[in-house]
Design goal:
The chain is of the alpha+beta class and 460 residues long. It is built from 17 helices and 22 strands.
Length: 460
């Protein structure tokens, strides 16, 4: 059993990990930047150590400072959360060389899934369908043009590193392809320090569906069902739910097929700990592999709610060398769960960040309502990091009950002092197409156009 874990992150995910540690009777150590001196995770942990100035490049991305804090606090393990260093194989190696357990996949597994182009090769060997695309990295404009000509427009230019929608552009002709190629490379270099991109066929009106996996160090790998993450803007997720209404109503057999595909890819990568295998599904029920997220996901709570399995505790137990005590047949999906990411952004001002001091904070409650947040009245949202205030999760016996609970909970959520995405998410929950489960990844763009946008703004 670990005695002490350092949480190498901030915000709601740091609070989430600290809570899991407390329930396992494991001491926790928070690291924080100067901007996060009064943050909730630094207050809740058993110990807290400042690791640098406010920019993440001077704090949460500094491996040397995090390792120094871990050695000073004499911890057994480090949990990286999501983002920052969570998918950094070098960080995992440094932890192991310092005799500190990294709570996540091994560096071997991360290297096997090092970037999206390598992941595609692995999926191809596993016999999992892929969108048509380039064989490797696109090195110049001519490579881009010849690839697009071979597979046909529209195409997606994608960064091989990172995520969160950065370094991604859709092109419908040669002119937009060349512009998108250079823009995606520059954005990827700035965000991830890696300008590599590849091209694949852009599937129009797709559904973004991902499978949660867990693997121990003894070769046991299971999946915990799917999450539908299609409600997104510029590849940033806004609302997620499980089970997927598309699979539940139209393609129920896909759950077993795609679950097996996710496990096959994980097995080939010798994957351990928690991860997510992402797919897109077209309107005819064809599915294609996208990538593997080698960490705990932001939207993991909805899977916890319908399976009853605490994913963060599972991560910790696996890192301690414990075998999975859950088999695939033990995984039962009960009910329906929805998550809204509550961000400090202006949804009617091009989703511009809205950092600042929260004047009033009142979180909703009641049966079937869960809040994962680090915010409180008087807390100042710094401009240096992502704008998430928290995650609102509702769970019901079926999708309709989960939606009704979410609609009610969003109406109760009171946050003043900063703008939030709550009014826009209320509009989503009340939209007839969303309520019918009829939506794809272009759903948000449709809501933000013409008369529908005016109607939403009037309601807000």
């Amino acid at each position: 059993m670990f005695e002490k874990i350092l949480v190498a992150n901030r915000g709601e995910i740091a609070v989430r990990v600290i809570r899991a540690c407390k329930e396992l009777n494991i001491k926790s150590v928070a690291v924080y930047s100067e901007a996060d001196a009064n943050s909730m995770h630094a207050q809740l942990a058993d110990e807290a150590i400042c690791i640098g100035k406010s920019p993440s490049s001077e704090s949460y991305l500094r491996i040397d400072r995090i390792i120094s804090a871990a050695e000073i606090a004499d911890v057994d393990a480090i949990h990286p959360g999501y983002g920052f260093l969570s998918e950094n194989a070098h960080f995992s190696d440094v932890c192991e060389s310092c005799n500190i357990r990294f709570i996540g996949p091994s560096s071997r597994a991360m290297n096997a899934l090092e970037d999206k182009a390598i992941s595609r090769d692995l999926a191809k060997k596993a016999g999992v369908p892929l969108p048509p695309g380039s064989e490797g990295l696109i090195e110049n404009e001519q490579d881009a043009l010849s690839t697009a000509k071979r597979i046909g427009y529209p195409v997606m230019i994608k960064a091989v590193a990172g995520g969160g929608g950065r370094g991604m552009r859709v092109a419908h002709n040669d002119i937009s392809l060349i512009k998108g190629y250079h823009t995606a490379r520059a954005e990827a270099e700035k965000a991830f320090g890696n300008s590599g991109v590849y091209i694949e066929k852009f599937i129009e009106n797709p559904h973004h569906i991902e499978f949660q996996i867990l693997g121990d160090g003894r070769g046991n790998i299971i999946h915990l069902g799917e999450r539908d993450c299609s409600v997104q803007r510029r590849n940033q997720k806004i609302v997620e739910e499980t089970p997927s209404p598309l699979i539940e109503t139209k393609f129920k057999g896909l759950r077993k097929t795609m679950g097996k595909a996710a496990i096959k890819i994980a097995e080939m990568a010798h994957y351990t700990n928690a991860g997510t295998v992402e797919f897109i599904v077209d309107e005819k029920g064809n599915y294609y592999f996208l990538e593997v997220n080698k960490r705990i996901q932001v939207e993991h709570p909805i899977t916890e709610e319908v399976t009853g399995i605490d994913l963060v505790k599972q991560q910790i137990m696996i890192a301690m060398g414990e075998p999975l005590k859950i088999s695939q047949s033990d995984v039962q999906i009960k009910g329906h769960s929805i998550e809204c990411r509550i961000n400090a952004e202006d949804p009617f001002g091009d989703f511009r960040p809205s950092p600042g001091r929260i004047e009033m904070y009142y979180a909703p409650g009641g049966r079937g309502v869960r809040i994962d947040s680090h915010a409180y009245a008087g807390y100042t949202i710094p401009p240096h990091y992502d704008s998430m205030i928290g995650k609102l999760i509702t769970t019901g016996r079926d999708r309709r009950e989960a939606m009704d609970l979410m609609n009610r909970a969003l109406g109760e959520f009171m946050i003043t002092g900063v703008k939030t995405t709550i009014p826009f998410q209320q509009a989503i929950l009340q939209d007839p197409n969303f309520r019918r489960g009829v939506y794809s990844t272009n759903f948000v763009e449709q809501l933000l156009t013409g008369a529908r946008r005016e109607l939403i703004e009037d309601k807000a």
